Amino acid sequence: QVQLVESGGGVVQPGRSLRLSCAASGFTFSDYGMHWVRQAPGKGLEWVATISYDGDYKPSADSVKGRFTISRDNSKNTMYLQMNSLRAEDTAVYYCAKDRVEYSSSWSRDYWGQGTLVTVSS
Amino acid sequence: DIQMTQSPSSLSASVGDRVTITCRASQTISSYLNWYQQKPGKAPKLLIYAASNLQSGVPSRFSGSGSGTDFTLTINSLQPEDFATYYCQQTYDTPPDTFGQGTKLDIK
After folding, report:
1. Nearest CA to B44 among A96, A118, A6, A34?
2. Chain A partners of B36 at a C-beta cutoff of 8 Å?
3. What per-residue confidence (pLDDT) applies to B108?
């Protein structure tokens, strides 16, 4: 069965960096686009970044552009989110999610990880 | 960016009721509309994609309809496990995709 497991969250001071990982199993990882979506405490869902199945297409939200970088290693079935210059407003649960459609970015997400909490605080 | 507005923001209902949640887009999005269910402390779950297509494994009491700017999620015969927060999401004009603010469905 499809499994997505995030790791790397924690408490970090403003301005510092953190790298999140998303380990995938149960499907052909290299055939699907992947996404990061976050949810601030008590708030709604916000798209963060997307990476195509081959890593060639990597859009990110304006709120994180220039600070966050999405990447993937298809040989390790793992996606990453490098987060630099963190701000208090980046505090959220970060979810990785699988695109529903192979070889495409449909932007609909049929499997999600359990989430990892990132808290940015001094 | 396309804005998505859900109504109501919260809703109380009883087991066995039929409920409808509405989502309106700030511009036409054809049928590029998905619905998710989220329970407290859990990840979102895809219920409906492309406005009216039931995701595999989702009970048939869930249905979606609409196109253009107005969409609805209907749950027939509410079950205890359906009490959750529901989000719509547009994927017509990306990036970014955008979500509605959520509709919290709780027990009356």
Report:
1. A96
2. 45
3. 86
